[in-house]
Amino acid sequence: MDFPRVMAASVAASAMALTPTVSQSAGGDEIFKKSCTSCHYVDGPAKEKSIADQLAKKGPELWYAGSKFQKVWLVAWLQDPKPIRPLAYNSISEKNKGDHPKASAADAQALTDYLMTLTSTVVTAGAVKPGANVRGRATFTKKMPCTGCHIYGKEGQGGQSGPSLAGASKRLNPDWILAYLANTKTFKPVRDMPDFGQVLNAKDLQDVAAYVASFE
Ligand code: HEC
Ligand code: HEC
After folding, report:
1. Centre of ligand 1 from the C-alpha of residue 32, in Å
2. For the chain, which end, N or C, has fewer CB atoms within 10 Å of the first or last residue's CB respectively?
3. Contact assessment for residue 83 and residue 98, using Cβ atoms and an 8 Å cutoff
């Protein structure tokens, strides 16, 4: 006669066994929908077609995050998001306040697992070997105006209008750097960075990507 009660108890027990102990119950995609879509979009290809579209964005697009970022960096950054762009997003004068939302360790892990699934077919794996590339260095520091817009050294030297490239060796996928330089408009159709795919040849692009990918 006790059957239903026993059944109910065993159902409850198995449900408990399935419930994770930390707050990993929500998948990264669900957490993202709740906490991140107000500022980031994740469905590519790039949506922005005009400067007005770009200015309406509250944060960078993340539809190719899995091709762009290194996983270890991403998990850590989501928990302790230090400024990447010296200036506030879409601003040419206001300082970046460093007020990006912080995720818990469990949420950062789930969000990273989700974001790493978002990739771009334009990125070729194994195309770039990071290193102190002499030709890449000459392109970056002398031939092209890269340093006018990007911080690149540990001492913070370089321009402020682009994202800081200091620490790129830990943050960015070297193969994405090359893909971005060769196909800038695919990723950022209306951002204020010259399209070097039209200016540099394939070897120069590869060398400068290798050099940037070595920044500490
Ligand atoms: C209020 C708007 C806002 C919200 C909400 C927000 N972000 Fe951001 N996010 C930004 C801005 C602005 C930046 C650029 C920060 C910088 O350059 O330092 C950014 C940068 C990022 C970057 C680096 C992208 C790049 O190209 O440099 C990642 C990854 C990221 N956010 C993930 C998330 C996740 C995951 C969430 C949800 C937990 C989230 N963000 C919530 C505004 C937001
Ligand atoms: C006129 C200014 C300007 C010049 C010159 C310039 N960049 Fe950029 N760069 C930008 C801007 C703006 C972005 C994208 C900003 C954003 O996503 O918010 C960018 C993005 C990047 C990124 C991606 C970084 C990230 O975290 O998203 C890399 C890598 C990069 N530039 C490398 C270079 C290299 C290499 C050169 C020289 C060959 C160069 N840039 C020259 C302005 C510039």
Report:
1. 11
2. N
3. yes
